[in-house]
Amino acid sequence: MQNKLVSIIIPTKNASQKLPPCLQKIRRQSYKNVEVIIVDGKSEDMDKTRQIAKKYGCRFYTFVPQVKNGLFDATGKRNYVRKKAEGEYIYHIDADMELTENVIREAVELCDKGFDAIIVPEDSFGEGPWARAKKLERRFFWKDITIESPRFFRKKVWDTVGGYDETMGAGGEDRDLAIKTRLAGYKVGRINSLVMHNEGNLQLMQIFKKQFMYKREVLKFIKKRPLMGIVGYFPLRKAHIINWRMFASNPKDTFLFVVMMTVESVAALLGIFYSLLRR
Question: Fewer beta carbons under 10 A from the terminal one: N or C of the chain?
Answer without folding.
Answer: C
